[in-house]
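Record pair follows.
FIRST:
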Amino acid sequence: MNNDHEKERRWRLVLGSQDSSQCLSERDVRIASALDALYQNNNSSKNGGRGARGGLNRSAPTVSKWLGDIREFFPSSVVQVIQKDAFDRLGLKQMLTEPEFLAAVEADVHLVADLISLRSVMPEKTIDTAREVIKKVVDELIEKLERKTAEAVRGALNKSKRTFRPRHADIDWHRTITANLRHYQEDLNTIIPEKLIGYKRQHRRVVDLDEVILCVDQSGSMATSVVYSSIFAAVMASLPGVKTQLICFDTAILDLTEELNDPVQVLFGVQLGGGTDINQAVAYCESKIERPSKTHLILITDLYEGGDANELKNRVANLIRQDVNVITLLALNDDGKPSYSAHLAQEFAAIGSPVFACTPDQFPDLMATALKREDVLTWAGDQDIVTVRPVEDTTV
């Protein structure tokens, strides 16, 4: 009977997700959908009209998500075959072998995620162009996010330390503009500041530094979160008042802390896709913590744990008992409501880790709240962010 069931399962996978039945598990349906996106795309003339579905366009799974799925479901030898078929059948090869196409395309964070997903199979002549495209998007995002992040973090670390003779990099622009509104020059359409307000730079000893560890899930579904996390990590690493580490993971662990002076290089070091072992990654982060009460662990993951979930919960609970500030972000992007493991999210909330999704615009204020050790859940409520509620009974 088991053999018959397995035979039926295999045939259903061959026929595709449209022909699935109760014999397919949720994982099997995902496998069938991943294959449909490639092998059932626009083949209506070959299969009696039932094929025109799937594909790797923007309305179907993104390239990075699709690559993450096939890396999770198939061994590397099979992945290489599927990727080659994708290049030949869906035109991805044309995109990758024509630098002019990349140079002309409208680049955004999603394209960056797609390019770093495909980096390992990218033709040599295209890599330089891809790096330029990624750098352009990264530079634009840093320009947009750097000042707000720097001001929020400096303000949190030096909350009561103000000066009226700040260096340019230490000016609190919000307070300065507010204090000089009466000096608005209508003919120039600008404010002439007579008084600058800024943060007083302190020489903090290494033992006084707050430490931030961004522990980021690099599975395919977290692609844009990885991009934003890398940029924020690079910005915070440039600030003198905080020590920042960036750890990316799937079933392996990638410590990118030493590369944070070059966010483009960081992104080229990321390998999107594959399985997920959150417990292993948190264990690695635990080994890097020297002063728990000064450490903020920002765990960015959809919580679909492929490792030991019970050990993961115990580990996180132990870190919280040691006074590590553990915050769980289900996503760090603008893509809307994320998909995540609701059960594990509720259990994380029950052991004391705030759990919610966050946009890049909200992240600087979140970090300021965390560094000041203020109530993150209260802050989230003020921002109209929906947080995960804990389950009633959780055994840790």
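SECOND:
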Amino acid sequence: MSGTSTRSLAVPAGLLIGCAVLAAALAMGIRQSFGLFLAPMTEAHAWGRSDYAFALALQVLVNGIAQPVCGQIADRIGGRAVIMGGAVLYGLATLGMALTDNLALFTLFAGLGMGIAVSAAGMPVVIASLTRLLPENLRGRAVGLGTAGSSFGQFLVVPIAAQAIGLLGWQGALLFLAGLTLVMIPLALPLTDAPAASKVSVADNETAGHALSRAMRSGTFWCLFFGFFVCGLHVSFLTVHLPGFVHLCGLPLYVGAGAISLIGLFNVAGSLISGELSQKWRRRELLVAIYATRGVLMTAFFFAEKTTATVLVFSALMGLLWLSTVPPTVALVARNFGTRWLATIFGLVFLGHQVGGFAGAWVGGLVFDRTGSYDQMWIIGILASAFAALIHLPVRDPTPRPVVVPAE
């Protein structure tokens, strides 16, 4: 017998996947819309743009640090309660951002509170819960859908937030988003993945501490960690600096905005394709191919003439590779270290992504401030692609082992 099957699910697999995808979409979409509030809020409160940017950078870092903790709680009590609690905190933090005019309090809400909320209600916990609930043959597809849902949320919610700012003002728009976060609560109801003692294998009795120790002694864990660091570095550098880079090249501002939108749109397709390929290809080779292709694409763009067409083509192709690393990475974590403490261990791998994200945003700014150009940062990104491709070569990619389920 092979563990979880569709017959043993409390709700249909389609409903599980649909609710998880929508929850991930809202969590990512609302978070990605906060950049729209930079100009109106700093103008209204007479803050520096760096003050607002620091709060969002702190959010990324706190998200990474809190993710393993939220993951371990989800592994212990189930993802549903953690996602619901995260949604409530998400709403309260967004409400605080709307109502305070004190920079320190704003940083507390937008940085610390939102960072923890996104860790609890965001994609890693949602995907880990989904992975535990679904049978092996559906996991890659489900993770791809969850990742695609996150990108679709970016594509869908960001324009809605922009419209809300135009209609309601920045404060009214934040209040609207605070209410929208609560929709994640009913969406989490089907994610009843709390471990049941009578349904787990002997290996699932392993403690969290032992599981983490076992993972951190593994070379595979560190290869995945540092590979994900590179993914975060690329994503954050491009999200924060690509619009400014495009403008420096003499192109209109809307080209930079269109580039970010195209990345989000094409990442929907990229995540779905990656989820399907994760079920058919060896995950290790898929990650090597993704990172190597990123390096080739970034090199070609670096040397190409910067026109509207080249920027948009680059953005579309990069979107296909954007978060396509997530399905094979989750699958490799599950296959190497099991699903009992998947949210905990993947949360620690995700910390590498967020530290890389912090570095991508910050180092990109430092490079530009000191040299007046992003050239050195593009070279760093290209070399990082080669590093990530090579570091995945020794990753173990075992075939799934059957789970022994005690007889009823």
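COMMENT: The two ends are 13 Å apart (CA to CA).
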